[in-house]
Fold this protein.
Amino acid sequence: MTSRRITALGAAFALTALLGPGAALAAAAPAAAPVVTAAAPPAAAQIPVFTDGHGLTLVPGDTQVHGPTDFTLTVTTPQVSGKHRIRILLPAAYDADPGRRWPVTYFLHGGSGNVDDVAAAPALHSNSMITVVPDGGLKGWYADWVMQNTAEGAANWQTFHLSQVVPFIDANLRTRTDRAHRAVVGLSMGGFGALHYAQARPDLFGHVAALSGGIDFGMWQVRAAVLATELNATGAWCASTTSGSAGSGRCTGFGPVVDSDAIFGSPYPVFGADRVWNAVDPAAPANLARLSGTGITLYTGNNDLIDVHTAAASQTVKGRLDRLGIPSRLVDYGNGASLSPSCDGGHNYGCWGPAFADYVPRLEAAFAAAG
């Protein structure tokens, strides 16, 4: 094992030791209802017919129907190895109003999570918009990986989402396709993904929200969290899922161990070795400048050993946006008392569910104001 790998391993496990195994798990999704799926649709359920396209191939017979407006497709793509699910939440009037087109919000789940985590944020099942929840992998980090020959295989998550899933949804559903009617939101790992995607494709997304996001790659704590997922060093960051074992919220890990440079290359700022990290850093002023004209919202607590760091990252991003003259909204709910009785200010759905309940009506109003 090289000294570089030993250092990376040490950094990741140091973060795990700092956070403590399962430190935030007890608070994860305290009120989340179990997700019930069926092998066949209920008699009354009529979901739209989807067709292959944009590099995505539907897996026949592998659609889960949770209700007439809540279902999960399974697709394959050469961009990402294996099968991948896309959960879709439709407004109640989608069938009854066939002439209407709808805004779309993409929800990006956290590390070790999956598409079913959306059940812990019921506000995202809105009657004013379509919500799409694409699989982001246990540790995909919403990126096209530097290394494509790891145990994960092909891992072009950004290409999968932005160049395939978005046009696939627009081709199969009655969507509003202008940026003013499309949002991307996410939490934890998905908070990075949301801000990164909004910066990478401002032509697609007119609204972005990051909840307790790893959104400042200038912080060693955030880089160490990425390394922890690469090396499958489980810790309190796993609170960003409600799936786990039988829906208990217990972390199931981040999958196979991969090279510590697999996703963004070397994390060490030596002779420009960390150039990919810097290029995709959501907090970099050059990247933040790409959000001019985008509705930006950040949420974070600061009351556990994870969100104390996401609060620092969010404050940095907010400060830099202010200096750039780009309007944004930061909600730092501290210990959670100002947000909801279920929120303890930590890295869990007890806070994120109420945060979405605060955010979604504002997003709905912005969609409506766009005409």
User: Anything to note?
Assistant: The longest strand covers residues 80-89.
